[in-house]
Amino acid sequence: TMTDLDTALLTVDDQQAHPDPFPLVVGLRTAAATMSDVVTWIATERRRLIERLSLHGAVLFRGFPVHDANEFDTFIRAFALESFTYEESLSNAVRINCTELVFTANEAPPDVSIFLHHEMAQTPLFPSRLFFFCEKAPRVDGQTPICRSDVLLERLAKRAPEFVEACSRLGVRYSNVMPAQDDPESGQGRSWRSTLGVERKVQAEARLGNLGYRFEWLENDALRTTTAVLPAIRTLVDGRRVFFNQLIAAFRGWKDVRNAARKSICFGDDSDISPDSMQIAIELADELSFDIAWQPGDVALIDNFLVMHGRRPFAGERRVLASLVADDGTRLAA
What is the pLDDT of residue 202? Predict the structure, then answer.
């Protein structure tokens, strides 16, 4: 039991154990609690909550008095973590800022699946933790699947050891075609101007050069980029190895009028990644996924190094907001 507020650790349907509960669910049973009470409680418990996050991978806060973007912003700030803004990211997704720290999770249409991934693992700049908040739950589906990447890697190493060895030895590259202007119909529709934080082609070329990317200008001022070699497997400071990448999301979902999903990934030496190997990874990740079935007011805190996440298609209005926490440089082993 945690201090100050009447909270309890809850169990939810299909909750997993690895061996610790996944996700950890913290329920608030004090109906009269105010946001001021919650801020005081977080300030007292923040260190323990972050420790538990690193152990469990995800913490779901249920029943707390969070109703809108501003209260979500207040909830986030109580943790006193350094923010990672959408503007400074290299995210492919189109998002809309609500406050300085809070933005929409993804503007892709309801029928578009966003497959499992570590946030921004396809770039050299990624957050360490993610906050999600359900302002309005959809009428049907719209869950956020989450998957422990360390457990996935253990099982993948048994089923496809040669693939894991190649991922570890060669790393991976990602290719993506960005439009000149934001395309909200695509989960990968953020423009190169917004993604790179530039206005002109010459500025884009300079930024890409600094990042070590390869690039090619296409018709309609679209831009094809290929990343430098990035790790597909990382080791955390506690020794856990994780399948930290965007391979599943790219292989399954990076497709729109500009992109073909299977052309979006390759090993670091430009050799092909076997579709059979990817199917094994997908199968195992699907088996390991836990679906967060959102209730209004839910807040989830996710360890981006340990846990992948996605979005199920949905019907009805769904409003899930997000915020990112900067990498403090202490989570990955050298």
Answer: 96
